[in-house]
Every structure is written in structure tokens, then in C-alpha cells.
Please model this.
Amino acid sequence: MTSSYFNPSFATAVETADAVRGKHISASELLNMTFQRIDRHNPTLNAIVWENREEAVARAKHADDALAKGNAPGVLHGVPVTIKESFAYRGSPSTWGLPSLKGANSPRTAVAVERLESAGAIVVGKTNVPVTLGDWQSYNSIYGTTNNPWDLTRTPGGSTGGGAAAVAAGLGCLTIGSDLSGSIRIPAHFCGVYGHKPSLELVSLAGFQPGPWNGSAGYPMDLPVAGPLARSARDLALALNVLGGAHDDDAKAWTWRLPAPRHTRLDDFRIGYVLDDAITPVASDIGAVYEKTLSALSKAGAQMERGWPPGLDPQAQMNTFAYLLFAFVTADMNDDARKQSRTRFESNPQDIAAEAAVAPHARWLHETRRRLAVRALWQKYFESHDVFLLPTTFTAAFPHDHSEPIDRRVVDTPEGKRPYARDMAYWVSFATLAGVPATVAPVGRTGAGLPVGLQIVAPMWEDGTAIEFAALLSDRVGGFTAPPAFAAAIGA
Model:
């Protein structure tokens, strides 16, 4: 029986786990309500593209039996969650939107997902992605298009768009996604939820790959990470404590703990910020929300300083980010495509994408040295500052646009059309390149009612500082709000 104060549709993961442990609701009852919401709302959203009903029911019963016997539950005991389609999960495909992988089920589960389950979480399904995770929208020929719960004509973002839409619509308490070019942060911003890009290598990416995973090692990761999305900042910290730490042989040598946040009051934070610039200007409708947020922080007594860290060259950082990004995504390029890239590069030495596909390993080493120098610059800055605030991207959620080629797409803003491929990743590139943590927190909505998320960057390994700042910020500007069309609880 549910308690009168507990709303299973939109409770946080912390509240939900407490309700299950306190026997205000059983894991089985909660799971049944979650699947009722999925049945009602997912046909409209198309956020969850593979369901795990049979195993989820069995796991919920096991969770209830364990609790009845007095067995100590995990911190996510009985909590329903979703996972991004790109993570291996036993008995399910990880297609990454590629039709050739549609029927190729994995025999194993990704390490990050195993950790969620070990903490008691119940996986209800997998969420939609773009093809090869290579877009800021979530659609493919296998599963179709995912819609934004705030406006079904608009995208929820990508590549963790399905996950962000599911969390915002109350289809599970939290989700796990991945982030290279803002794939957690931009969907969180578009859907009005919290998202966290962890410090590089904090969360294992073993089992994060297209096709079945047999336990073999993947590529070393110098940019991508895995992390959580949720309806509260406290849930991000809870999930990160579950997800983070050494894996396999590394666990023999070292353990990890989430460092305490630097401060627990807003007025103690030393804040740097840049919320607009000439390279990639922010649309005025989200810029107005950011200005209100700055005003709220000022009234809270926070110490604030506008401007980039000394020595930081935004355009140079963007160039290094672009090179390493294209080097990563072209790792499996076939010979014909690589020959075409060489021809492009020879005709245009300024073509970074082509150069990344054909340059020698020595060039990657030079760019990696630049990447590490950028991290050192940010770490120096964080000796005198605690967090740095940035836009998440230049626009709020935009209408679906599946036109090809991608580099010809444009986004309408109040100030006119903007180039899609060139501008979308600019603001998220800084934290990705440096490998530092970044939390996106909902801070308001545009005049058209679309969510706006603020990006909070913190020092390397100090993920808790960004998350705590996001939690404190919610007390001043509000946090998650359920999209009106999905706000009604089951039975209402």
C-alpha cells in the first residue's frame, strides 16, 4: 500500500528506495505502476525501445522476498531504472541504431549496468539512440523517433535522448547514458532533468559497444564517459556512488570514493562563469533564463566572476576537441573511406575531420598533450574557484530535423538560423576535452515553455562539488518539473 506522501510516478530515486525499504510500497507494486505508465505514455514518446518485463517482474519479487526476510537491501533496492540502448544487457541487442545488429543479443551485461543491478535497481528497458550515437537527436530506422515530453514535435536531444525523455515523463526513476559531445548534458537540458558527465574514467565503459559483448576490451577512451540522468541532483550523487570506481584488475590496486563537495551553502561558492560569447552566441530566449539564474545567485551571496580562466583559448580548445573527436569516430573507418579522407585533406589541410582520419599516431600524441595541458589549466583555475558555469548549448529543444547531410541542417533561434553541426557541441566541448566533471541542472523555461539547463563544471575527480551546487541551486530557481502532458499519476 502506498503512503499518501509518496508519488511513485515522479518520486526521486532516493525517495523511492526509502519507500520500498520502509514498506510503504513493494517493489512489485512499484514495478507494476511503472509499466502502467510505460503502457500509457511510451507509445506517444517512443523513449523505451526494448522492454525487460519478465526479468523485471522476477527481480521485483526477489527484492520483496529479500526485504521480508530482513536481508539488507542495496541503496537502489526495488528502484525501476532504464538504460541506454548502447550498453550491453544480457538477452538484448545493442544495435546503436544499426539494422545489421537488430537480432544480435548480448550474452553479458555492461559493468555499469551490473553495478546498478547489484545495488538493487530493476532494469525495465532500454532507451532510444541515434545511429552510432552520432547526433543530438534520437531516431533510427529500427526503433523510429523519440519525442520530447515538453513538445512532441521537438527532439529530446541525443544521444541519450530516449533516456532523458523517459526520466522526464516518469518512466523509471533514473537512467544511465553516455557523453562524448554532450550526449547526457544536451538531452538533460532539452528535457528539463538533471544529468552528470563524470570525471574521465570514473565509470567503467566495459560493455559499452555496438553488438554483443563477450567481455573483451574495447578502445581506450580519452573523451567519452558514462553517467546518470535523474529528476534530482541528489539522485545523481546516489547513482554515481554506485557506478564509480575501479573494475576488474584495477580493483586489486585501488578503490574510489566520491569526495565531499567543497561547500554546502551557495554563498560559500567561488563561481566563475561565461554564459555567452561571440564564437557561439546563446539564443536570447535561453539567455534570459541564465540572466535570472545569475541574479538569483547574486542574491544568495555567492562570489561570482565573469570571464574565461586565464590562458584559456576557446577556439584552440575547440580545435583540439574536434581533432580528438574525429580521430575517435573514424577508428573503424574502412580503407575506401580513409582514402577519400586523405584526398580531402590533401586538397584542404584545414579539414580537421579528414586530417584526424589520416594523420599519424604522432599527431594524436601531440593533441593529447594539448588536452592534458588544458586539464592542468582548469585545475589551476579551480585552486581559486569552485565551479564554472556555462550554457549547455546555444538553443532550447528544436523541432525534429532528419534532413541529410547533417552539416546542412540549421536551427531557428529568435536571432535567426544557426548552423547545427558547427554550433551544437561548442559549450559542452570544454569539460569533455579536459576530462572534468559537469552537471546540468534545470534552471527555468523559455517564454515558449521549453526547459533550460545550466552546465556546472567542477575540478577533476570532484564530481560531488558540481552535483551539490546543482542541488543547492534548485532551492533558489526550482528544479525538475513534470511536463504537463505527463504529470498525472497513475490512477489520477
In short: The chain has 15 helices and 15 strands. The chain has a mean pLDDT of 96. The two ends are 16 Å apart (CA to CA).
